[in-house]
Amino acid sequence: MEIKYCWRCKIDVPMLNKEEFEIASKLYSNGFKVAKANRQERFKELLDYYNGLTGFGETEPNAIMHHSLQQIGPDCENCGKPYRTPKAKLCPACGNKRDVNE
Ligand SMILES: [Zn+2]
Ligand SMILES: [Zn+2]
């Protein structure tokens, strides 16, 4: 887990590493299998896991599913905010350009 700026949420959030995100994905899909009244109960395991790990207090299961370090790029050399995707060539914060080897 690392704190990174999220371009969708527009705040710094705890992003999960590969192993943590795999567990979260599993708990997320489990949420669809249980017959529970509301989303909060349905995804309680996922929210508990994420919040236990991060101390963040997330309430939106869908937000967790894009808080993955693998889904974002490295930090911008210029401003320190992460690129939006691993292949993004342009930093949306400062306009810095980088070379991406594909
Ligand atoms: Zn986000
Ligand atoms: Zn930048």
Bound compounds: zinc ion
- The Cα radius of gyration reads 15 Å
Mean pLDDT: 95
Would you identify the regions where 5 or more consecutive residues have pLDDT less than 50?
A: none
> Number of helical runs?
4
**String of helices and strands:** EEHHHH
Strand order of the largest sheet: 1-2
- Main beta sheet: strand number and arrangement? 2 strands, antiparallel
Percentage of residues in DSSP E strands:
5-15%
What's the end-to-end separation, in Å?
Answer: 26 Å
User: Which oligomerization state do the chains in this entry correspond to?
Assistant: single chain
Query: Which structural class matches the secondary elements?
Result: alpha+beta
Shape verdict: elongated
DSSP helix fraction: 25-40%
How would you describe this protein?
The chain starts with a strand and ends in a 38-residue tail after the last helix. A two-stranded antiparallel sheet has the order 1-2. Helix content is 34%, strand content 10%. It has 102 residues and is α+β, with helices and mostly antiparallel strands. It has a domain at 2-71. Strand 1 and strand 2 form a beta hairpin. The structure holds zinc ion (2 copies). This is Zinc ribbon domain-containing protein.
Q: Which features characterize this protein?
A:
102 residues; alpha+beta; two-stranded antiparallel ribbon; 2 strands; elongated; binds zinc ion
Give the secondary structure arrangement, pairings included.
Layout: E1 2-6, E2 11-15, H1 18-33, H2 39-42, H3 44-54, H4 61-64
Antiparallel strand pairs: 1-2
Helix pairs in contact: 1-3
The structure holds zinc ion (2 copies).
